[in-house]
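Each record in this resource describes a single protein on a pair of labelled lines. An example record follows, reproduced without changes.
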Amino acid sequence: MVVRNLVRNLDALEGSEPFDVCIIGSGPAGTTLGTLLAEHGIRTVILESGNSLLNWLADPRLKKLAEYEYTGDTNYPLTRTTGRLVGGNSNFWTGRCERFQPSDFETNPYTPKGNPWPIKYKDLDSYYLQAEKMLRVRGGKLSKYMPPRSEELPLPPSPNITALKKLMIKAGVVVDDSPTATPARGIRFFRFNKEILPRFLGSRCGILVSGVTVTRLIHDNESRIMGAEAKTLDGITKMIRAHTYVVACGGIQTPRLLLLSRSERFPKGIGNQYDRVGRGFNEHAAPNIYGKIRHNRNTLDLRHKVGRTHQFYEKFWVDGLGGVFPVFIQSWVFPHHLLRYRLQDIPRHAVKIMKRAMQPTLYMGATIEMQPVDENRVSLSNTREDIFGNPLPHLIFNYTDKDLHLLERTRQLLYSLFEKMNATDLEEIEVTWSRHHIGTCRMGDNPKTSVVDRNLKVHDCPNLYLCGSETFVTGSPAPPVLTITALAHRLGDHLISSSLQKI
């Protein structure tokens, strides 16, 4: 990694301003966008609250900055849902790169009233291709159930899941490779800070400032953002100035920053004239079931084999419910990561592992699309503050009746597939969460029902943009990172074009 453009001291920025673009957040959205801009000669600074993974694990002050309040019946986990470190939550990403379906962008059962997607699948198609090439996405020939595409995935599949595909045909399921980002450096998982950020740091126009937290945005009399107030953990404050600002902090911290940036002109927070900031939080809940099957020539493999299917994506739309996205994992020797073992359980589970010589484990789970409703939202705490004296985010997150109905219908679907497989010893564990924070600053053409427009510009501010899954109108049941990256490419084109027009 080229380190000459990695800054850990705000004083080092003296004489470097104003930048063309200031990006707040170094996760997938911020790193992708910053790299595209810097490589096109646009002077770009990325501000990141955290530093390294070691700092994140060892510094309790960073942990406190990531805290938030929670109210609701979803039993949503407060730990391991946000990270303050360079690369953001992509440090914990498994690399899954699924496209949304074209139907996600059309009017469907979960489209919010008065707030349809302002873009269509065709508007993202070319950017999906660019994102897949940037992320070196691998996967085999895809079935008719997968989203349409004009080119094959950039890299061939690995590992080969032909045996798993044959196994699941027995249940009438067409399994596809799960398109996955592939690191170029031989490590197991793709990390934006390892694979993409070096390009940004190696350019002459990109600077990363780590260890600083943006606490509010400052605007002028024309509602243009004129500064980002940034603080170090030691309390040093500096105003970062740029011509254009992009907030890419995720579905909890992005709305929080807008709400913290209250002023006489924006008494409810920037972008919040119609009380839309923070509304419509949704996630990906998943039921998880394990079963035993008999060995055949398609199960005798020591490696985990993972496949997914879009076959049931819209199965429950006819009932007014959201999308469903099943995943299948064949495990012969090693247990699935969701099965948590205590030390005293090791002897018992060692026996289970030996029994897999006769009966391997098959895992089936499915992420569901949750209903985006205004009542599920991010606001500011009335009782708790961070280390800078600012209110923590307060997440209100409850299941809707449709969420509960869809979870039950999805369980029934998975059990029916196990029945077709003649599986035994079925075991269901608790609902799990994907840690995908979606939809709190939705895009749209109508400022009364959305926060940003189709180009991701905040309606109220001529030079402020948002980028990430917080701008999604609906969540889809598919993982969000590829769509986040595609939107970052699209925003990059818009900002590069705007910059060229000013020359």
